[in-house]
Amino acid sequence: MTTRVSVIVPTANRPHFLRTALASIRALEAPDLAFEILVGDNGTAEETVRVAAEFGAIYLRVAESGASAARNAGLRAASGEFIAFLDDDDAWMEGHIRPHIAQLQARPDLDAVLGQVIYADYELAPFYGDPWPDFDPGQGEEMLRRMLSGWFPQIGTLVARAGMREKVGEFDPALVGGQDLDWMMRIARRRALGFQPTACVLFRGRPAGSYDALQRRRVAFDRRVFLRHAVPEWRIWKTPMAMSQAYYGTLRHFYLYFADAAEERAAQGRRGEALRAIWDAAKVFPLRTAVHLARPSPIRRAMGHIISPRRKVAPELKSAQD
Fold first, then answer.
1. What is the model's pTM?
2. Positive or negative torsion for Cα 96, 97, 98, 104
3. In 10 A of CB 76, how many CB atoms?
4. Other CB atoms closer than 10 Å to residue 15's CB: what's the count?
5. What is the pLDDT of residues 244-269, one digit of tens each?
6. Cα separation of 100 and 152, whole Å?
7. What SS3 string covers 149-194?
8. 213 pLDDT band (50/70/90 cuts)?
């Protein structure tokens, strides 16, 4: 018996990445498993149409911008028994899909199953060998707490029953960032999300120096997603302090990113960029930034470089000193 899975791939002007993504999906097909690939395209690259046709995908032109609109077009058109996702710059791994489906078939109480990712560089070569998460996130309230405390599952590792379209609705187009976490959170709040400890997706990183603007945009959206789901679920924490710690965990990686960026750029003499990074860190956690300016930390070291940069010695003076 063949299981039919609809795979939704949002894309925008990255046909060179898209080809790799679609090839990784087709590579898993066999007599027991067939894929209906739905490419939601809100870009302008003509080659995207040809790449979709090359892999027998259903091409969906999407007028609205954003990954939410592209994924929603795929959700509406999907006809498979299960629904899966893949971002256009990532790739599925050989062990994906079948263990998820087996768990869903054995567990009718589950709506969907998540798996693990392998982090890769910009060329999609793995650079951190262990699959993530490297812990069991549990189920029910335990998994929901994990997702509301800084664990961000990758949507490419998710396989859901087709009925999730009606049960949790579409992706929120108002969320430029975090729309995938928001959608998965809705499933988690039903206490029906499972976990499969299998490496499923090669997750492509971004080139150094290309990430700042994206991080700035995502802070506000991840904060909104946290509040949207944490406030109605406040009872899953024993104390207000525990909920506060979950909020910190949700935004912590943004703060650390900007703090480390500030120190690195200040040490390189890029004072304006370092100051911008300190400001960005302060917008994430104002009080923590103030505290870290007063104690040994990347933020304090960055400010030290900015205030008292090392003076460069002229070559002729350096020779004389030697």
1. 0.91
2. positive
3. 12
4. 19
5. 999 999 999 999 999 999 999 999 99
6. 19
7. CCCCCCHHHCEEECCHHHHHCCCCCCCCCCHHHHHHHHHHCCCCEE
8. confident
Rounded CA gap, 85 and 92, in Å? 10
Distance of CA 253 to the CA centre of its chain: 12
Tens of pLDDT along 283-307?
Answer: 999 999 999 999 999 999 999 999 9
First-residue to last-residue Cα distance in the chain: 80
16 DSSP 8-state letter:
H
Closest CA to 159 of 276, 5, 32: 5
Tokens for 54? Answer: 């090359």
The one-letter code for the residue type at 260 is: D
* Beta strands, E only, the chain: 3-11, 33-41, 58-61, 82-85, 91-92, 112-120, 126-132, 159-161, 193-204
Neighbouring C-alpha atoms within 13 Å toward the C-beta of 305: 21
* Contact indicator for 43, 12 with CB cutoff of 8 Å: yes
Strands (E), 151-310: 159-161, 193-204
